[in-house]
């Protein structure tokens, strides 16, 4: 992987990423390559930038009339799209802007190690800005002289996976950070990458096999409910999957918690009489839905790919409200 570098320390002055990206696992965001080795990142052919009218871009089919059909609420990252390569590289860029002094001793080999660990750690990330916290934590684990947190010394990757919900508020407090500033920075870094190197940004993502085609061919009422900022999900749908997905059907970061979005969707007059289906890759999110009696009508699905681990899938099998779904079944359900 080519080094990711910042020109100066001013926000927005970012150098483009060049070179090969580390591969994700066969389906989820996990690289099996040893540190120091990279291979070309698999992507679908990327159409040239442009508007909705360019060749190859397809609109989603008109939905069925709301009489006995299905309503699908789909998570984006980890269900439709594997964005781990892009989010990890963007997080390194953004962390360099936020904490330039932390990265003074970080060379290209360590950057490669950081991105490699981010593949393993991706299942704990609920919202994109958390990637920045993980990147800085990995640096503090490796370089004691920049350490400002009380938890970094001797911390293992597995311990981060097991304890992230406790570690996150500790890091935010000890680093004196606030969520909104990190969210804003992460978005601006992505915007800068898109503006200066759209094809490179697109190529750092991929859709899971069959998911884009399933979405194109679906005749069901379909919405995307994600913690990703809507503009990035829409850009990937158009530029990478070739789908003109209606903006009003994308509920991204800032539209409220997913449980609230699901309540809104089920209350819409046009959705009365539909079978409600919510497909996620995070078990914790599905558990939050189960806690809300008002959402009892939703059929809940945990995908067997994406950003979850075998332990979570095993746990889900013991929860009556949750069904496991694999890629072939996903494509069949969405049609």
UniProtKB/TrEMBL annotation:
Gene Ontology terms describing biological process: SNARE complex assembly
InterPro entries: HAD-like_sf
SUPFAM superfamilies on file: HAD-like (SSF56784)
GO molecular function: SNARE binding
One Gene Ontology cellular component annotation held by this UniProt entry: endosome
Protein name: Ribosomal RNA small subunit methyltransferase G
């Amino acid at each position: 992987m080519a080094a990711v570098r910042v020109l100066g320390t001013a926000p927005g002055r970012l150098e483009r990423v060049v070179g090969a990206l580390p591969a994700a696992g066969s389906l989820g965001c996990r690289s099996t390559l040893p540190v120091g080795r990279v291979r070309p990142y698999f992507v679908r052919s990327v159409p040239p930038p442009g508007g909705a009218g360019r060749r190859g871009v397809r609109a989603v089919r008109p939905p069925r009339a709301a009489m006995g059909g299905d309503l699908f609420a789909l998570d984006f990252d980890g269900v439709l799209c594997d964005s781990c390569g892009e989010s990890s590289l963007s997080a390194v860029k953004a962390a360099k802007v936020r904490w330039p002094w932390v990265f003074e001793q970080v060379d290209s080999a360590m950057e490669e190690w950081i991105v490699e660990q981010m593949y393993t750690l991706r299942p704990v990330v609920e919202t994109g800005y958390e990637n920045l916290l993980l990147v800085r934590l990995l640096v503090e684990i490796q370089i004691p002289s920049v350490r400002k947190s009380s938890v970094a010394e001797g911390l293992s990757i597995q311990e981060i996976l097991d304890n992230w919900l406790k570690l996150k508020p500790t890091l935010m407090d000890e680093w004196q950070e606030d969520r909104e500033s990190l969210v804003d920075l992460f978005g601006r870094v992505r915007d800068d990458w898109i503006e200066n190197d759209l094809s490179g940004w697109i190529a750092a993502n991929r859709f899971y096999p069959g998911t884009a085609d399933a979405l194109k061919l679906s005749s069901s009422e379909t919405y995307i409910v994600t913690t990703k900022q809507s503009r990035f999900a829409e850009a990937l749908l158009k530029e990478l999957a070739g789908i003109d997905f209606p903006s009003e059907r994308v509920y991204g970061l800032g539209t409220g918690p997913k449980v609230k979005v699901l309540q809104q969707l089920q209350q819409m007059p046009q959705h009365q009489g539909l079978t409600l289906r919510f497909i996620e890759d995070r078990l914790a999110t599905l558990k939050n839905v189960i806690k809300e009696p008002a959402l009892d009508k939703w059929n809940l699905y945990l995908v067997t790919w994406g950003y979850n681990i075998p332990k979570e899938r095993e746990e889900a099998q013991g929860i009556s409200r949750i069904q496991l779904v694999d890629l072939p079944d996903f494509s069949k359900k969405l049609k």
